[in-house]
């Protein structure tokens, strides 16, 4: 299985996604084909992570 499609068709909800392990997890899941929902109290930082994910797709 290709890692770019490993999670194709799956949806992942990542809490704490604005920084650290949560951000890295969100990026990795997106890289592997998942649709990712980011959740964090740090809204601006979360938007920054989300924009980075959108720009790589």
List the helices and strands and how they pair.
Layout: E1 11-15, H1 20-31, E2 35-39, H2 43-56
Parallel strand pairs: 1-2
The averaged pLDDT comes out at 94
**N-end to C-end Cα span:** 19 Å
Shape: globular
User: What's the Cα radius of gyration?
Assistant: 11 Å
* Share of helix, binned: 40-55%
Q: Give a short account of the largest sheet.
A: 2 strands, parallel
Helix count from the secondary structure assignment: 2
Strand % is 15-25%
> What is the domain total for the residues?
1
Total beta strand runs? 2
Q: Would you list the SSEs in sequence order as H and E?
A: EHEH
* Low-confidence runs: none
* Lateral strand order in the biggest sheet: 1-2
Q: Helices and strands: which structural class?
A: alpha+beta
What does this structure look like?
The protein has helices spanning about 20-30, 45-55, and strands spanning about 10-15, 35-40. It has about 55 residues and is of the alpha+beta class. The chain has one domain (about 10-55). Helix 1 (about 20-30) runs parallel beside helix 2 (about 45-55). The longest helix has 14 residues, at about 45-55. It starts with 10 loop residues before the first strand and ends with a helix.
Provide the descriptors you would attach to this structure in a database record.
57 residues, alpha+beta, 2 helices, two-stranded parallel ribbon
